[in-house]
Design a protein that fits this description.
Blueprint lengths: L1 H15 L6 H10 L4 H15 L7 H7 L3 H15 L2 H13 L4 H23 L4 H6 L7 H10 L5 H19 L5 H17 L1
């Protein structure tokens, strides 16, 4: 039974670090992890890192950490835009389409990402350290994105992030005007923002 082996894997990893989870949370972890031991191991390491030595994990922590591929693909799109990395953007958007993300979902995901950057930039402007500003965000930023987002705060101040949020709203409005070329509108809009990030 695969779920039995995955459960053993989680329990063994957590026992090493004295991490506590209740039965409901353990069931949730097992349900969310696939039968692939290698990728499950990576996810378990991620959860252990999140909890820390002697820590614990709540159901909300698990929801945030083991989000589905669509959410992660959209975060990658937003992160590529924030870095001004066109090649990465093209790969990330292809992945998002393959995960059945629709253009409005992608734009809203980018909106959430830049809104987080805006809040963090504001915290930095009032004296917070960039890494702390990112860690303080709610909902928490996926641990894979924290380092990159912290670096992006060097480039994205309050005003710049605000301008991108305005533009993303324009793109969403354009998408809602029921054009048959939704993906094209989405990609062109994001390319424009990507070029802006590079300048």
């Amino acid at each position: 039974d695969d779920s039995g082996t995955i459960r053993d894997l989680v329990q063994a990893s957590f026992a090493e670090l004295s991490i506590n989870v209740d039965r409901t949370v353990m069931d949730m972890i097992v349900a969310k992890l696939g039968a692939d031991r290698a990728s499950s191991r990576r996810e378990i390491e991620k959860l252990a890192l999140m909890a820390g030595q002697g820590g614990s994990l709540s159901a909300k922590d698990i929801e945030d950490a083991l989000e589905d591929g669509t959410v992660l693909a959209i975060d990658d799109v937003a992160s590529a835009v924030a870095d001004g990395d066109i090649v990465r953007l093209q790969g990330a958007i292809t992945k998002a389409w393959s995960e059945d993300a629709n253009p409005v979902m992608v734009i809203r995901g980018c909106h959430n990402y830049f809104r987080s950057l805006l809040i963090a930039a504001h915290a930095v402007s009032t004296g917070s350290a960039p890494a702390m500003a990112i860690k303080a965000l709610r909902p928490p930023v996926h641990f894979k994105l924290q380092g990159r987002m912290t670096a992006q705060l060097q480039k994205w101040g309050h005003k710049q992030a605000m301008a991108v949020l305005d533009k993303l709203q324009d793109i969403e409005l354009a998408l809602k005007s029921s054009s048959p070329n939704d993906r094209v509108i989405c990609m062109q809009g994001l390319l424009g923002l990507c070029l802006r990030a590079r300048s």
